Amino acid sequence: MKFCLLLLAPLLASAQNLKEFEKKVTEFTLANGLHFIVLERHEAPVVSFNTYVKAGSLDDPAGQTGLAHMFEHMAFKGTPWIGSKNWPEEKKALAEVEEVYAKLEEERRKDLRAGRNKIETLESQLKAAVDKANLYVESNAYPRIIEENGGVGLNAGTSLESTNYFYNFPSNRIELWFLLESQRFLNPVFREFYKERDVVMEERRMRVESNPQGKLMEALLGTAFLAHPYRVGPGGWASDIQNLRLTEAEQFYKTFYVPGNITIGIAGDVNPAEARRLADKYFSQLPTRLLPPLITTVEPKQEGPKRIDVESPSQPLMFVAYKRPDQYDKDDPVFDVITMILTSGRTSVLYKDMVRDKKLSLAAISAPTFPGGKYPNLFLFFLVPAIGKTAEENEKEFYDVLEKFKAEKVDSETLARVKTKARAGLIRQLASNSGLASQLTSYYVSYGDWRKLFTSLEDVNKVTAEDVQRVARQYFIPSARTVALTVQPKQKGGAK
Length: 496
Fold this sequence. Notes:
Blueprint: H1 2-16, H2 18-22, E1 25-29, E2 35-40, E3 46-53, H3 67-74, H4 87-108, H5 116-134, H6 141-148, E4 152-158, E5 163-170, H7 174-186, H8 193-209, H9 212-224, H10 238-241, H11 246-256, E6 262-268, H12 272-282, E7 306-311, E8 318-324, H13 332-343, H14 349-357, E9 361-370, E10 377-385, H15 391-407, H16 412-429, H17 433-447, H18 452-461, H19 465-475, E11 481-487
Parallel strand pairs: 2-6, 7-11
Antiparallel strand pairs: 1-2, 3-5, 3-6, 4-5, 8-10, 8-11, 9-10
Helix pairs in contact: 3-8, 3-11, 4-5, 7-12, 13-19, 14-15, 16-18
């Protein structure tokens, strides 16, 4: 442990001194609007990269949920020069696929007047065209180049508010990263689109349809939010995914993958001047385009408690969520403190009462910001009843504990402890190049300044016991509450 702390000592000092940390950070914005944050850390000859695109499932057009996730998959398929055995022929084959698909959709739009035989013929032609186009694909060519050059941790993720692409490279391969990353956004080829669409469908089946927690979460969001896109999870709806078109993914890319909507974080053994030179050389090729439209839908005020039961043969599970303001609200750090007091660790209020002492729950955890923070969202509690205990017992005890929490001010010792935990949590986030690249980009996009990563600690330190009680009383109220829980499937005849 002492050895690890010694290794982290320079980092800890930087985390405590923003002025010193700033000396290691270089920021610049290209003429096309793409922003870079470069952090020098020369302890090892490796560099971490994080490309943050401000486009997530919130931006999926109506009827096309899952589209942001689909493009994430497409971004690994390569370019005309990477991933194709014969690009001229593959290009023609891809065009043929879309021609047949357009005819199929045109026939389907006739609805009751559509010809069943004609549809079946076009479906067969579509399958043949897709199979032909796939013959020209050199599978996994893009990730293979990265792996062959020492790249590790290659991955991506789509959330409601962003899509992130990341991996680590040896520092002597930094120019290769600039080439590969710029090309996949400058010249992406949407090869194997319909094959990958099946992969995305399978991911949904695993994460939602076959997962009691995922299914319950989907029900919670759809119940808690009436109008705002937060009501749809990142996976999208199955029927939408099954009908996504390559042309729709291309339009999504053109709309949202514009330079001004992208921020790139680089942390590790890198020279900022060289990074700027390479950024100009490779990323300046991306054409300047208009920023995408903003989401204007505002969730209406919730006028009373909401509740939904989801039949599942699994053990009981329960979500209890309360509406709260967005991450820019002055009380945002208070919610962070509350979640640590109530559910962080074995000394937390809910753990001691429901898990340790009364043994009603196997777990009692919370998330202060869910499913995203940019817009008014939820303070989420997750309860897992213990074997032999019911969801009803857990729910009753949970409300009792919450009311007691609202009635009594938190003591100074507990408040000091959670603030120390907050600082430790930040330090853990900054313990690696990849963590730094991720956090710097995330805070820059979310708050307009990566320094918020550090100043947020000051905000937490200012939280008082009076703030905690005031916010708990203001927001943890029945009229702002949504409950989702699993129930055993009904047997024949209606009996449970």
